[in-house]
């Protein structure tokens, strides 16, 4: 059996170490990916340093991975050897990112566009999942909760919330950046975020309309927000998750509003009222409850391989609805 190198935690809170581990063969519906870039997430250090979340050791960590498919399991249709892919990890073992080869599930792996590098791709899975699941999960079996917004990739979703203000605490964090981008696609505005002011210009390039200093006192922050808008806030996203941000965000919410937080509930119980909701999000696309939160565009295959494309273009010209046409060049007669 072949082997590869993995960074692992031998037992709870023990120092990281590198060792050789067996390279597992992908089972049906799985891929084996050569990891070219692995993203580092706060949860990775927290598991090792604080002994949280993981009970089974030795454990391999690393939530985010980008690389090349080197083998596909039985029945895999969407991927082939050589595809550049990104994936979120799930098991602190053979599916984790901090190793030279990782397993991936076909259903929760995505191809990387040509203009995105492996390093850029490795920034996406966990942050996007944490943001998108909290904002757009359809609510069925949602862990914790959901804002229940119509996703921008569904019909009528793009720009749907035009003119609704929102606040995102921690806009410069990975999760915060994804949330700014998604809420911009959803049409929200103004998009107010907190960050170190050195990040203000960059955050405006990705969609924030106002960047307020993360070090403002709650009173000053409130005054600055009210200078920007007097409208009520129905959606607030807390990508920081401290007691300060959660309590401030909850107070700022309008009745009927929802606060999504990246950490467990720290809102003072005496502040809780039935007409305001808050929830702790669970940003893992691999648990069944979260699958389907991020849906690819519905696809329709044009028959006939390359020769079928002109007819497909004709159909496209007349207009398609909520579907992307694709062709399979390998099916060319
Ligand atoms: N629930 C889940 O499923 C889930 C999933 C992923 C992450 N998380 C949690 O979400 C949080 C963010 O994760 P991440 O990967 O996005 O972190 P990250 O990118 O490492 O976050 C770093 C950023 O946080 C910002 N920040 C820190 N404290 C802030 C504050 N008080 N106000 C405003 N900004 C602040 C800093 O902004 P400046 O540089 O501008 O100062 C910094 O750029 C972490 O607590 C993580 O554990 C939860």
Automatic annotation (TrEMBL):
Domain Enoyl reductase (ER), first and last residues per copy: 12-327
Q: One GO molecular function term?
A: oxidoreductase activity, acting on NAD(P)H
Pfam families in alphabetical order: ADH_N, ADH_zinc_N
The source's superkingdom equals Eukaryota
Q: Can you tell me where the transmembrane regions are?
A: none
> Which InterPro entries does the protein's record reference?
ADH-like_C, ADH-like_N, ER, GroES-like_sf, NAD(P)-bd_dom_sf, Trans-enoyl_RdTase-like
> What is the designated name of this protein?
Medium-chain dehydrogenase/reductase like protein
* Species whose genome carries this gene: Daedalea quercina L-15889
> Taxonomic lineage of this organism?
Eukaryota, Fungi, Dikarya, Basidiomycota, Agaricomycotina
